[in-house]
Amino acid sequence: MNDIRIPDAIKPVDGRFGCGPSKVRPEGVEALSAVSRTFMGTSHRQKTVKEQVARLRRGLADFFSLPEGYEVVLANGGTSAFWEVATFGLVRQKAQFAEFGEFGAKFAQAVTDAPFLAEPTVHKAPGGQAAFLTAEAGVDVYASVHNETSTGVAVPVRRVAGADEGALVLTDATSGGGSLDVDLRETDVYYLAPQKALGSDGGIWLALMSPAAIERAYEIKATKRYIPQFLDLVTAVEQSRLEQTYNTPALATVFLAAEQLDWMNAQGGLPWAVKRSAESAAAVYGWADRSSFATPFVTDPALRSAAVATIDFADGVDATAIAKVLRANDIVDTEPYRKLGRNQLRIALYPTVDPTDVVALTTCIDWVVERL
Question: What b/e string do you get for 237-264 counting C-beta neighbours within 10 Å, with b at 16 or more?
Fold first, then answer.
């Protein structure tokens, strides 16, 4: 298979289609290189780094049209750390989850394992389908996923009708934020990662928080609940207001994410990014619908993600072999989510990915299948 050479004329200009870490724009890396001696390896308590943290927070606020009173909060550890942060600092007693993939399940498990919280309610759906939140007395946190990275299912961000007064809505936008449309007034915490649509590296979490969510964090801390300092949400809020993090952040990650946001905002912000991702989605799903051997894994068109596409292949067409040939030809990270265990490819559709490259990818897949 490594001997199959795809003609350069039909290959994407950039062959990176990973769902995270995702494609980083070369221009961002060049900009980082230009400040390598003045930014990298400098103190995160000083102006040079604080200016980049401020730039990142300002870029997020502009990109998502941050509602009045909402704040951009960041800290180290990525989304995996934020699930623990929210478990300690946002769930007062009982949570409800909509779980329809690997990542939604991890947050639900963190709350389940917390000995100081009640057993959560978990609405589950199998891979390729969606689960939804419903009003339930006594629930003070409702948590769902905007885009399930493992399956390519996306659902709208909406508040829960009939929920108890004061109940918070938490939205995992790890891979959906920046590619999918959202009205932040429909959620209290919209948290995301820099290594997806923001075209950066990993290592930090970013959260767009409502005044009610910030108030809840202070309320819980006042109860003297034990909260590890690294996972203390109040600390993260207060440090973010100072344009810094509790401990040293990944400086390259901060810079690259800020650079990406400046680029996306210059293109037209969230509306532009949503349109660009939708163009890529139309290209890949349209190709799969027309194909004799490929079909979208998510059968309901309304649930198909414009951030992550999952494409199943017919019996007799080995997706693993296709991915290996693509990788040997510098078209990388099209492999499916490992735990899903399906004969499929998974393709990132983030704004960094050019829709014309997605079209070229589908052409290459057809070309490879003919030769396999």
Answer: bebbeebbbbeebbbbbbbbbbbbbbbb
